[in-house]
Amino acid sequence: MTKILDGKALALTLRSKVKEEVATLRDAGHRAPHLAAILVGEDGASMTYVNSKEKDCEYVGFESSVYRLGADTTEEALLSHIASINNNKNIDGLIVQLPVPKHIDATKITESIHPDIDVDGFHTLNVGKLTIDEDTYISATPFGVIMMLEEYGIETRGKHCVVIGRSNIVGRPMSILMSQGGRDATVTICHRHTHDVGAFTRIADIVIVAVGIPEFLKPDMVKEGATVIDVGITRVDADNKRGYLLKGDVEYDTVKEKCSAITPVPGGVGPMTRYGLLHNTLKSYKNKFNL
C-alpha cells in the first residue's frame, strides 16, 4: 500500500514544537523571534504564500512584519529597504518573496540580504557553506523535503536518487543534501537538456521533481516501489469557483499506484517549506543570543 507523505500534518506537529520552544523562551524573559518579508507587486500566488507565512508566525508566537511594495518600486528603493532591515537588531529573518518584477535583479536582491538573517538560504555565503557541509541556513524547500524523508523513515543511504530540475533554490541544494553524509544517496540531476529523463527515473529509488510543469512525471517513468517527492505546484485554469486547480509536477493519481511513498499536491512539500522558514528564523534568533 502506498504511503502518503502528509506534509500538512507533519508541519503542524513540527510547528507545535516551535510554538512550545518560543513559549519557553518568552517565559524566560526573552523577546519573540521576528520574521520580516518583503513583497513587491501583486502576484496572486506570492500574496497567498506571504499571507500563509504571517499565519504561521502568529501560530508559533513569532513577531512578523510584511512590507508590501508596489510593482513599480525601483531596485534602488528595494535595496535601501533591505539595508534598513539588515540594520534592525530586532529582526531575525528576512525574505524577499520571489519572483520580483522584471526590472529588478533578483540575484542582486538576494545577495543584499545579510547572511545572518538570510533564512531563505539564498545568499552565496550560505550556499557555499551548504556545499562544504558547514552549518548554515538550508533553503526552506530542500530542508522541508529532508525533514519529510527523515520523519517518515524513508531510507536514503545507498539509494539512487534522481532530482529533476537544477534551480539554485531547489534542485542544486537538493542534490547536495541527498549526497551528503547521513543521507548518502547516489544522486543524478536531470534538466531540460537531459535526453530521455525516463531512462534515469525508471531506475531511481527516489525521484524528486521540481520543474514547474504540471503532471510532468508519468507512471511509465517510475519504477515499482519508488518514493516520489513532488515539489511543483502550478495553477491550472479550471471551471470551478476559484477558476483554477493546483497541479503538481507528478501525475498523482496514476503514479501513486506504483509508489511505496508519494507526496500530494497540495498538502505535501508546501507546508514543509513554510516550516523550514520558521526553523531557520528560530535558528537565527538563537544564534544571535547564543541560546
Element-level helix/strand string: EHEHEHEHHHEHEHEEEEHEH
Number of domains: 2
Count of DSSP H/I helices: 10
The average pLDDT is: 96
Strand order of the largest sheet: 1-11-8-7-5-6
Strand content: 15-25%
Report the sheet with the most strands, covering strand number, pairing sense and barrel closure: 6 strands, parallel
**Global geometry:** globular
Contiguous low-pLDDT stretches (5 residues minimum) are none
Q: Could you give the distance between the termini?
A: 43 Å
Please explain how this structure is put together.
By secondary structure, the chain is of the alpha/beta class. A six-stranded parallel beta sheet has the order 1-11-8-7-5-6. Strands 3-2-4 form a three-stranded parallel beta sheet, with helices on both faces. It has helices spanning 7-27, 44-60, 75-86, 106-112, 124-131, 140-151, 171-179, 197-201, 252-255, 269-288, and strands at 3-4, 34-40, 63-69, 93-96, 160-164, 186-190, 206-209, 226-230, 234-237, 244-247, 259-262. Helix 2 links the parallel strand 2 (34-40) and strand 3. The chain starts with a strand and ends with a helix.
